[in-house]
Design a protein that fits this description.
By secondary structure, this protein is an all-alpha fold. It is built from 21 helices and no strands. It has helices at residues 2-8, 16-23, 36-47, 49-62, 66-93, 100-108, 113-150, 163-180, 185-213, 220-225, 238-252, 258-261, 269-296, 302-306, 316-329, 333-366, 373-376, 386-398, 407-433, 451-468, 485-502. Helix 8 (163-180) packs antiparallel against helix 18. The longest helix is centred in the first third of the chain and has 38 residues, at 113-150.
Length: 517
């Protein structure tokens, strides 16, 4: 079986990632066609600072303003690099599409492997679905704002799309993403590189253009020292305010596990997978800070930007772009075009998110962890796990439906995406620095003697942000203002443990090899 498989993949015989995959017990079923640049591009497109910062900029300026945004970015960046470095080290040793849940199984030891794999895998896949949901729904909301401004703005009789139309936009975007992800991986590689270039160029254009066009800009003192306590949500404690505003930065720096999920399609994945993780985080930190700085210099009146009665309906960055051009040229058309640049970036982000989702679904079902696993891990003639693609977009659509009843409940999706993913990131790192501290065999990329220290920093940081993002975001706490994050994450944990205790422990054995010994 193995020899015939090698004959079909002659171009991959000498590939270190292919060889390591076979050593781990898996056939090479997906087409290994991605370079290190393509691997980086997919993670970089998912991190997409234009997406994360634009989506949650309202939260940042409402809670703490420039101080939370600027300094929160540096704090999140530092600790995110610790998490990413530890993940990259493990990825180098275990370059499989399963990524995090496979790592947990190998690092937790034979006694704990099935349970560790079960918990990590489900937190990872639900977190990924939540990311895709929040990304594509935020694009649908931005399209709504672009239509509003293009038809005259809120104060000029502009058209405000209903929540049902926004959901329809969301569904249409997901359909496009599913169709694109039916293309061969070589096409996705090209589109990923286009997306990365679009993000980088878009950031540099906007960070320079917006403050230069604006007729009035903030002083450096305001950008680096102004702390906004007037949030209108009853949150008065300065530390609490900073923590809530900090969500923007941490949410923006997620999704880099995509490099791990694409390793079975990446050449020399034991070195290029880790490079994809580290480089996507590092470059995102740099360009993200530039975008934050450029936009924040155009922030003059925070209450006005957050006012639902402004032309953009309270969408802060849209109002900044629109007013910057309108104040100078008498028309905000160019500002709407700038929003279009951001919209394309968010579209690419969602596209890459679906790619990563489908690879995780493919790997998890290959190991029998999902209902109807035999359906989801099938690949088509283009070597694409197309059933996993469609499952991912369907679930992402369903996860947005709560927005029809309560936008507050849906907004918790952002925190769930952040915490769910970071819990999945932290679990294999925790096992690496505890149960596998002495047995872990590093790959070509490793942190040497600092691996355990960096790993503990990463684990402690995830524990801290899990608490931070479960704090109330408004007082008094009511059914409308409740932060549903701890309810949702806690509920997911209880569901996973219960399903394990009552059923899954009898049949799930963790990752299953598919190469005969």
């Amino acid at each position: 079986m193995f020899s015939s498989h090698v004959n079909r993949q002659e171009n991959s015989v000498l590939d270190s990632g292919h060889s390591r995959l076979n050593e781990l017990g898996y056939k090479q079923e997906l087409k290994r066609d991605l370079s290190v640049l393509s691997n980086f591009a997919i993670s970089f497109s998912i991190i997409s600072v234009l997406t994360g910062v634009t989506t949650l900029y309202n939260t940042g300026i409402r809670f703490g303003g420039p101080v939370s945004i600027v300094y929160g970015w540096f704090i999140a960046a530092s600790f995110t690099m610790s998490v990413g470095s530890s993940m990259a080290e493990i990825c180098s040793s275990y370059p499989t599409s399963g990524g995090l849940y496979y790592w947990s199984a190998k690092l937790a030891g034979p006694n704990w492997a099935p349970f560790a794999s079960w918990i990590t895998g489900w937190f990872n896949i639900v977190g990924q679905w939540a990311v895709t949901t929040s990304v594509d729904f935020s694009l649908a909301q931005l399209i709504q704002v672009i239509i509003l401004l293009s038809t005259g703005g809120k104060n000029g009789g502009g058209y405000e799309a209903s929540k049902y139309l926004v959901i329809a936009f969301h569904g249409g975007i997901l359909l496009l993403h599913a169709s694109i992800n039916n293309l061969p991986v070589s096409w996705l590689s090209f589109l990923g590189q286009v997306a990365a270039a679009w993000n980088i160029v878009g950031v540099f254009v906007l960070m320079i253009l917006i403050p230069c066009v604006a007729t009035e800009t903030a002083s450096a003192k305001s950008v680096f020292t102004h702390f906004n306590t007037d949030n209108g949500e009853g949150v008065d404690n300065s530390f609490h305010i900073f923590v809530v505003g900090f969500l923007m930065s941490q949410y923006s720096l997620t999704g880099y596990d995509a490099s791990a999920h694409m390793t079975e399609e990446t050449k020399n994945a034991d070195t290029n997978g880790p490079k994809g993780i580290i480089s996507s985080i590092g470059i995102s930190i740099i360009v993200g800070f530039g975008y934050i700085l450029g936009i924040t210099f155009a922030v003059i009146n925070i209450p006005f930007l957050l006012d639902e009665n402004n032309d953009a309906g309270g969408y802060a960055i849209a109002e900044i772009f629109y007013q910057a051009f309108k104040s100078r040229y008498g028309s905000g058309v160019e500002g709407i075009i700038c929003l279009g640049v951001v919209a394309v970036s968010i579209f690419f982000c969602g596209m890459s998110s679906v790619t990563a989702n489908s690879r995780m679904t493919y790997a998890f079902s290959r190991d029998g962890a999902m209902p109807f696993s035999s359906v989801w891990h099938k690949i088509n003639k283009r070597q694409v796990p197309i059933n996993a693609v469609w499952l991912s977009v369907f679930i992402s659509f369903c996860m947005a439906l709560p927005s029809l009843g309560s936008i507050v409940a849906f907004n918790s999706m952002v925190s769930i995406a952040t915490i769910g993913l970071y819990i999945a990131y932290a679990l294999p790192i925790l096992f690496r620095v505890t149960l596998a501290r002495k047995s872990f065999v590093p790959g070509p990329f490793n942190l040497g003697r600092y691996g355990v220290l960096v790993g503990w920093i990463a684990v402690i940081w995830v524990a801290i942000i899990s608490v931070f993002f479960s704090l109330p975001v408004a007082f008094p706490v009511t059914i409308e203002t409740l932060n549903y994050t701890p309810v949702a994450v806690g509920g997911l944990f209880i569901l996973l443990v219960s399903s394990w205790v009552f059923k899954a422990r009898y049949w799930f054995r963790g990752p299953i090899t598919n190469i005969d010994a």
